[in-house]
Amino acid sequence: MYIPPHQSISQQSLINIVGNTCPPILISGDFNSWSTLWGSAETNSRGKILENFILNEDLIILNNGSPTHFTTHKTFTHIDITLCSSQLAPLCAWKTLHDLYGSDHFPIHIRMTNNFPSTKPNYCPKFKLERANWTLYNKIINEKFAQIIPSDNINQQAAAVVKCIRSAANISIPQTKNNKFTARIVWWNHHLDTLRSRKQRLWHTFKRVRTDANLIEYKKCNALFRKAVKISKENCLKQFTSNINPTSTSQRIWNDIKKISGGNSYNSIKHIKVGTNILSNQIDIANHFEQFWSNLSATNFRTAKANSISHNYNPTTCNSLAEKIEVPINEIELETALSLVKGKTPGGDRISYPMLKPNTAGKVANTSTL
User: Fold this and answer.
1) Quick one: which of 36, 93, 300, 361 has the most CB atoms within 10 Å?
2) Distance between CA atoms of 306 and 288, rounded to whole angstroms?
3) DSSP class of residue 127?
């Protein structure tokens, strides 16, 4: 929205604009209005009209008090305003960038998220080795190993071995399930968790044996749970309101509101200032950090590297231990090495030691294939 400085406005004209839209709404623009509500030093007549409009429509001001305009008189004003419905406010983050980028208005960055992380972590299921059917595993893996076509390409052969092991494991070994993300509830505690578990247990008991005694026990526990939830919410709200005072910043208040709403704050780096430039691209930011840390350690590393390569190293003899390292590994050595390792330690391919150990999974086909 843009309202020119000399255009007359009324509260009704603003209401007519909003009346044609369905909530929730987000309004952003240059209103050319002054008010202390969004950071101005004083309130003018246009600002009062806009204040009444905001109060009557139950809108929320997202501005955090930062100036949005640099005037020709070399002063800062707050004429760019962002308004939104109350249900959207806890999900929005508002800020101005530090550079004008050729304009007399500072760019405004509005980020809207939900109660869940913007980037969900990549979940990788794990094999439940304690519940594995090793007999079936050995049978499948021997069949698949017999189908491998020998190749001189080491990478191709290794990929075929990994595929056989993973295929057998997917059939014979159960895997963990992906737990859905649940929003954090600030008023939840261990006592409520205990009461809820007990209430659910009594409910299942009543469904199995529908007696009056079981129903009464369930209703008692359910009443205790609801009362505890109410008390916990009240205490949480009291603690929240006690932190609101004339010195509280809007940023802190909104952060508390987001916590109560179940949202999670992620303080990822959105942009950095390098000299007079601002980097907002994630690749540019990563390259800058890489160059910065590289320069810190470059002196010692490069000096040591130069000294190392400056000397000519021409060995005339080879140590006997080094010669043994180059000898091809045999089946007995492989089985001995696998029998000595402990734990599971799956790598990126999700293949753990028990899948390879002869004493756990049985001798896996022809071990020399590995």
Assistant:
1) 361
2) 25
3) B
What does DSSP assign to residue 311? Answer: S
Which of the listed CATH numbers 3.60.10.10, 3.40.50.1820, 3.90.550.10, 1.20.59.10 matches domain 11-112?
3.60.10.10
- Give the tens place of pLDDT for each residue, 24-59: 899 999 999 999 999 999 999 999 999 999 988 889
Burial of 165 (0-12, 13-18, 19+ CB in 10 A): buried
**Residue closest to 266 by CA, chosen among 117, 121, 122, 120:** 117
- For residue 84, the surrounding DSSP H or E stretch is strand 80-85
Residues sharing a CB contact under 8 Å with residue 176, sequence separation 6 or more, in sequence order: 125, 126, 128
Instruction: Say if residue 86's pLDDT is above 60.
Output: yes
Please tell me what DSSP assigns to residue 330.
Answer: -
Q: What is the pTM of this model?
A: 0.42
